[in-house]
Amino acid sequence: MNKLKSSVVGCWLLVIIIIIAAFLRLYNITEVPPGLYPDEAMNGNNALEALSTGNFKIFYPENNGREGLFINIQAIFLKFLMPISGENPEPWMLRLPSALFGILTVIGVYFLAKELFDENHKFKTLNPEQIQNSNIQNPTQFRISNLEFGISRSQKIALISSFLLATSFWHINFSRIGFRAIMAPFFLTWSLYFLILSFQTTKFIQKTTSEKSEILNSKFKIQNSKFTFFALLGGIFYGLGFYSYIAYRATPILILIILVLYWFKVKHETPNNSDIALESTGQADAAQNTELTRKKFLLSTFCFLISTIIIAAPLGLYFLKNPQDFFGRTSEISIFNSPTPLKDLGLNILKTAGMFNVVGDQNWRHNYAGRPELFWPVGILFLIGVFLAVKSLIQNSKIKNQNDNVKFKNENVSSQTNTRILHFDFYILILWLIIAALPVVVSNEGIPHALRSILLIPPVFILAGFGGVWLIEKITSNLKLTTYNLKYKMLLVAGFWLLVMLVVEAYTTYFILWAKNPNTLDAFSSDYVWIAKGLNELPKELPKYVVVEAKGVDVRGIPMPAQTVMFLTNTFSPEKQKEKNIYYVLPNQTDKIPQNSYVVYLK
């Protein structure tokens, strides 16, 4: 009954977080962000063209090239949403998919964090003393002093991580813009969740002594049918991620390291390390089960990799045939094109590290210009999380070295096993931070760059969530109050107001301070939207000419800024331009404009 109650409490808290995330990503999406940036409009025009021609591409080469998945998803949304507005495309129709991906990422961070820090997988111990004197609390026990609420430590980390992400301006902003990059953290988060879940289901999960025989007789068989499904699902998500954003291409390094680390962990788990095996089946069965676990791990890895390859293959084949599209603008903005690459690399690392708590992205389209990417309380929790993670990894390394000097005596084997798997969560998160930062620091454009850093979002908020739980535990263990009840009430009130403050801050910063700022209007080319609305109100029989004076990447003979007007008037193709009597010319072509035509200048 207690376990059921704790599960219900956790589910309700997650539902509340999802509601908050959905509100901050969907509220007034028809009006905010204001305007429509040409890059968003370019996606929309490709989507409209795909709908009219039926040619849904793997890769759209215009505008320096974009993977096609997000654009094709936008096309589906346009097909079903345009009838609502009388077949007129609107900016919010391009942004709704981003909002949904953002909400699903919040959910994914919850499940990933919970799996990473799951007590059943021995991820809790932080130092040698805790290994010897474990203080793991019963997750079904209500403890006022530690604010347990019947929720396990891993679930608390997951809830705080997902809540901090739900109220993050950084993530809210990109969840409301029609950029494909929002899919990158979504796919990587869910792929890692299913990959790690598949690994955990390849082995026994420790239970109480009374449950161990039941595990051997039934649970193992059930898990045997699950791990390949999880691995295949993880591979599908991971493969789809390659269709999201160019920075995602650095993530195979992360996956490779995770596979290697986990293989070494599985490889060094000897029969003596399995308490269940020793107590239930004897040494022979233990050896057999350990060998089976290793084989299942290899099969799980194979399933993950083969599904990834199958899903990503079409894009890979496209790049083989069109290698110029693989790099896009990467070579143009690389530090290696700079006369001082090492100096630039050092500065980029400092700026990127400082964007969380010091100075953030200066682009009003990406951020409240200059504001740190993390609200200051969250920034502090992130620093705590990073410090604890690095400290624990260093301690773990020392413990491992000490254990390596022991001749594998029986009394030390269990401790060795704990230290080997103890900080797998921290390894993943720290490696994720480093690898996701690589595409950012090797570029020389707009550093710090919140958009290019989007893959950093999940590990940043999971580490902040871990820091939050550690801080709560630290406070509850050190405060000297008269009664536990008083301590509980004070912490509950303080915690409640902190959570409310985060929600209010997110709403105020985004919907009031940022959305209504004139710089934001300019960043999203709101003046182009007004031009498009004016053209739509003019009689169809009146010839209308848009003189494009604004500079930008050439798209079929016309600079990029015209894409906003083209999308909102649905005049991207020559056929649509003729149908609606709207045409686009360059400044040197104004002599071709017929008399009595309506002329507007795009500057």
Structure description:
The chain is mostly helical and 603 residues long. It folds into two domains: 2-30 and 90-514, no CATH class; 526-602, no CATH class. Helix content is 64%, strand content 4%. The protein has helices spanning 2-26, 38-53, 69-81, 91-116, 128-132, 153-166, 169-174, 183-200, 209-224, 227-241, 251-267, 275-280, 282-321, 323-327, 330-333, 341-354, 376-404, 410-421, 424-441, 457-478, 484-514, 518-523, 526-537, 562-569, 574-580, and strands spanning 59-60, 66-67, 544-548, 554-555, 558-559, 582-585, 598-602. The strands form three sheets. It has a three-stranded parallel β-sheet with strand order 6-3-7. The chain has a two-stranded antiparallel sheet with strand order 1-2. A two-stranded antiparallel ribbon has the order 4-5. A hairpin with a 5-residue loop joins strand 1 (59-60) and strand 2.
Q: Could you give the count of β-strands?
A: 7
Report the end-to-end length measured between terminal Cα atoms.
Answer: 67 Å
**What gyration radius follows from the Cα positions, in whole Å?**
27 Å
Count of all domains: 2
- Which consecutive residue ranges, at least 5 long each, have pLDDT under 50? 122-148, 204-223, 271-281, 406-422
Main β sheet profile: 3 strands, parallel
